[in-house]
Each structure stands twice: as structure tokens, then as C-alpha cells.
């Protein structure tokens, strides 16, 4: 019985890795679609998000079954609750990659990124890909080393997000089309939230490894 | 023992009502701060969000204890998992009310809403207050009657959100300051997400009452 239970917990962990791998792929392709204004690729990202949603659904059902049938306690219980929470964060990261792709589709054939913002969004895209990869790595090999890396990349994203508003405010009136300002505001918000959810996953892993909830509160 | 358990489940339900009451108060005051450009009131909303966060923290700890000590199954297990999920949604609704208040603070003494958008945001504010009240009512007296009401108000919010982008696109170039376009884009997104989280809570209640996960998937 214990072995069955361990296998079930391992299975949850494997599914989290699977979700994070797909999230990492989704943000990479969404960025590529955004940079090269590639409608077909954007459609692919939008379509692929259905799979991430269904992975969450399966994982959550299995976690509920483990709770019902195994009645785990202590560290095992924390692992199952943690898996439920991490799957929710990963699902949202998938949604945000999809939102970025949808922004490409909405604005097509025009580019969603006005020229003045190209460099900023290349950097945001790179940071988002790095944080997604770090999240996948963290879930593949749980340990505390990745936590500060993820926090540092999230700070990059926060700074880039703020820089978008400075750029908007500093642009000479009339130099940016109104719909472009709305586009970059939304895109920037999506990237910033993408980072927040990665931090949220890393806080759960930290909690599972240390039993300490505080980082979750202190990061507010 | 069973009676202790029932009391513990009732206690989770009471705490969800408490959270939703505070969320409802937060969005009401955030709207008032936004409409009347009231910095002091905005600060109050920002400050009060700490309490909502700590209510979530307490509720989640208690839910974890119930899982560990009572090992609930079937409908009781669903109720505990549902409470964990609903507390996460309510906490996000509190965050979004805080973000609206923060937008007032960032732009003060200027108003965060340019004149052209006053009517739209009055309506968004009203819809957000209605959906928060409906969520409170749903959690106070769980039943399926409130679910279509919440979906309908969420659709109002989605339509208003889209109308903000039409207004932005239609505005004569140069008639809206760039930072105002960024402000209304973010504010509108916050209201739209506020509605999404209310729908998410109502889907959990629906799931608890019917055992049917499908509405969660079909609403994507």
C-alpha cells in the first residue's frame, strides 16, 4: 500500500513537470509569434493551451483521489495540497502565454508591438522564457537553489513592466497610436503576471521543503 | 467526533463568507475612491487588503488541518478542496480591488479616469459591486440560483472591458494622454478579472452542489 501511495505522489510530481514543460514551450512560441508577428504560430499557442488546461484537470482529480483514498498527513499532505496550488499557477501561466498569442492575433496583420517598444519586449520575452525554464527545472529537481534565481528574474520582469509605463508617459503626445498603448500595457501586464505565478510555484516548493509559509507572506 | 468535524466545516464556510464580505466592502470603497479621486479612501482599501490576505492564510491552514486530522471523503472532501480554491479566488478579488485603489494613488492628484471614460467606469464599478454582493450572497446561502446571475454580470463586465478598447481605438489621435490610455487599460483589466474570479467561485459552489466539473471547463 505504501508503495502504491509513493507512486501516486511521484505521478503528481511528474505531471507538474509535464505542465511546466508545456508552459515553457508555450511562452517560447508566444514570444516568437510576438517578435515575428506570426499569426500561424500564435494560433498554435492558443490551441495548445487546451492541453495545459486538461493536464490541470487530470492532476487535480488525481490529487483529490489521493486525499480521499490515502488520507495523507504531514509532509505528504503538504505535497498534495502544494500540487493542487502549483497546478493552478501553471495553468494561469499557460493562460498568460495564450493571452500574449491572442494579442498577436487581435492586432494582425499589424504588429502588436510598436517599434519604440521592440527592445523592451525582447527582454521581457527572454526573462519570461528564463523564468519558465527555471520553474521547469525546479519542479524536475526540487531544491532551494532555484528559488533566488526565480525571484531575481521576477524582479527583472517587474522592472521591465515599470519601464513600459515610463516609456508610455515619456512618448511625445501623438507619437504612439492609442491602440498600441493599450496593447503594450496589456502585454506587459501579462508578462509581469507570468513572473508572479512562477514565484508562486517556487514559494510552494520552498514551503514543501522547509515547512515555512512565511516567504509567501513576505513577498506581498 | 462527527460533530466537531461538522463544526469545522461550518467554520470554513463562515470564513469564506467573511472573506467575501470584506471583498465586497473593498470593491465598493475602491470604486468610491476612483469616482471621487479620494486618496485617503484609496489608502484605506490598500491597507485593508492585508486583512483579506491573512484571512486566506488562516482559512488555508485550517483546511489543511481538517484534511490531516479528519481525512474527509466524498462531499466533505470536495467541500474542503473547494474552500481552498475559493479562498484563493477571493484573495485575488481583494488584490484587484487593491490594484484599483493603487491606480488612484499612482495618478493622484490627477484622476485615474479621463473624462471621456467616466460613464464606462461608473458602470464597471456598479457591475463589480453587484458581482461581489452576489458572491457574498452565494457563499452565505449556497444554492444554484445565484450562478446564472453571476455569469450574467460577468458578461456585462466583459462587454464593458471590450468597449474600453473600442473607445481607445476610436479616440482622435492626441485627444487622450498616453498615460491615461495605460491607466484605463489596466483598470478595465482589473475589473474584468474581478468578474472572472467571482465566476470561478460560483463554479466551485456549483461543483460542490452538483459534483459536476464540466461548467469549469465549458466556461473557458
From TrEMBL, chains A, B:
User: What is its subcellular localisation?
Assistant: Cytoplasm
Annotated SUPFAM superfamilies = PhoU-like
Specify whether Transport is a keyword of the entry: yes
Q: Keywords for this entry?
A: Cytoplasm, Phosphate transport, Transport
Which domain of life does the protein's organism represent? Answer: Bacteria
Predominant subcellular localization, coarse grouping: cytoplasm
Q: Name one Pfam family in it.
A: PhoU
**One GO-annotated biological process of the protein:** intracellular phosphate ion homeostasis
Q: What role does it play?
A: Plays a role in the regulation of phosphate uptake.
Q: How does it assemble?
A: Homodimer.
Q: Which PANTHER family match?
A: PHOSPHATE-SPECIFIC TRANSPORT SYSTEM ACCESSORY PROTEIN PHOU (PTHR42930:SF3)
Tell me which family the UniProt entry assigns to this protein.
Belongs to the PhoU family.
**Name of the protein in its database record:** Phosphate-specific transport system accessory protein PhoU
Q: Which organism is it from?
A: Brevibacterium celere
